Amino acid sequence: MSLPADLHCEIREVGGHWWTVATFEIGSARRFRQALHGAGLADRGLPPDVSDVLRDRYDEHVTAYPREICGATFVTAQELPLMLNAALWLTAEERERIPPHVYEEYAETDFIRAWHAFAQAHEASERGARLVEWFGL
Predict the structure, then answer these.
(1) Residue 46 and residue 77: Cα distance in Å, rounded?
(2) Could you tell me the pTM of the whole model?
């Protein structure tokens, strides 16, 4: 069963306003959500100062599909390294069945590294960056 995800990068401009600069796709939203849970970053809700564009998009999704939208959360550039632990991307059953030396093949840590580099580039210009996401059922 597929679990769709909305993944967006926001940056904070001078003056403190957040705005969306990129939308990302990930191969396995189910595994990504599992990793968020394992890292303690899941289901925190949208950030209180989320951009109007993402707030409107999220509200539209929730209005259209009230029982299907879940797991809204956000991850800062400083929190992303928590998700590099490949074991977080696997279920307990998978960790028992799959040898630890191949965990990395199941995790999408390349996505995390790429997003982290993207966020760091913005932060080097003194702009905060974060990933805002939610999932559909």
Answers:
(1) 16
(2) 0.91
